[in-house]
Amino acid sequence: VTGAARSIARRIVIAIATAVIVVILAIVSLPLFFASSKVARSDVILHFSFDPRMHGDDYAAQLYRDGVAPAIVCAGAQASWEVYPADSSRQHLISLGVPPESVSVLHLPIVDCGGEVVPFLSEALKARGARSAVIVADPTATRFGSWRFEKRLAEAGITAAITFAEEDRAEMLGGWWRSHWKAQRIVGSVMNSTIDLLYAPCR
Amino acid sequence: MTAQSGKFKGRSRWLWIAASGLILLGCYFLTPMALTGMAGSLVRADPVTKADLIVALGGDPRCLREKRSAELFLQGMASKLIVSGVPSAWGINTGDAAKRYVVSLGVPESSVIALRESFNTRIEAIAVSEIMKSNGWHSAIIVTSPFHSRRAMHTFERYAAGNSFYSMPLPEQKPEWQRERWWSRRGDMGTTIREMIAWGNTLAGGFK
After folding, report:
1. A187 interface with B at CB cutoff 8 Å
2. Cys-Cys with B94: which of A80, A184, A203, B1 at CB 3.0–4.6 Å?
3. Check: complex ipTM more than 0.85
């Protein structure tokens, strides 16, 4: 074996080892993408986590039963023609025992990033007389999302705390690379958080 | 000799600086063209052709794909229309909503087929292929967003081979994706990068 061949082989081995280390680090550091869940007594529970594969509705209902807030607002954009998952979520919360008068729905416009939705949210919350909110979110969106929402809502005079169901955190971390929807959500969340930094309305 | 060598070195340095400046200037002007070209390569639009059916691919919450498909149907481009969707929250299916929408636009209900488990383009292609086979249909117009059109066609031609597919994507205009200066808009930036990642997954045969 010539010296040149040995050198090429060494470089290939170093490149593969580096790639393996990067992948392992990315997987090991994944929990860092999830912010810690915070719950504080508030005027309203703002519910965004509607995916039927997760536990957002059960968790929002539990927070209501625990007396964290006297009302729940299900907020979300259209998923198809006249289909708002927030409407279905409201029905589901009622079936879970939350009184109908305590659950309302807020239809949001389709926007390019989460930051663009904050003005609609703060206006709607103020119209309901709310000055504080516990936000039930998808855990994958919490690291950057909690910082952004808390900061933006604080600027609008609303105190916010972001929380999520612990089962959802465990669900998203468990074998996520084997499941299309989980991988799609995690990759999407990392990608969107990074891209958001480049655009002022989204930061 | 020494003076001549110093003069040559000085000229050479200036040549390097000038060449570097030209390269930087070239990159400055060519990069937008390259980025636009790269985004343009995501799009495939075929000449307008009649077919056995029109397929409106799912995944568009504004339902612009369904609207465009209904327009093509009403222009007589095909006699059947397939829309698709997924189970949404608690008993709702976006495929059913898409069907209601195209019917509200004037497409006869009997001409619409709704796919209800279309979690990705590959599943849609396989489902459409089975429907085409069982009905003796051989050609379809695929309507999707422009950024998704080339990958959709790649997937259909792979998983529904033996049929003819024609791409008639939505026009590149707001609120749809646009290739021109896509990097300057948050929405188009996210869509373009996500589509490129999806292409990587499709070509690598990764997630199904």
Report:
1. yes
2. A80
3. no
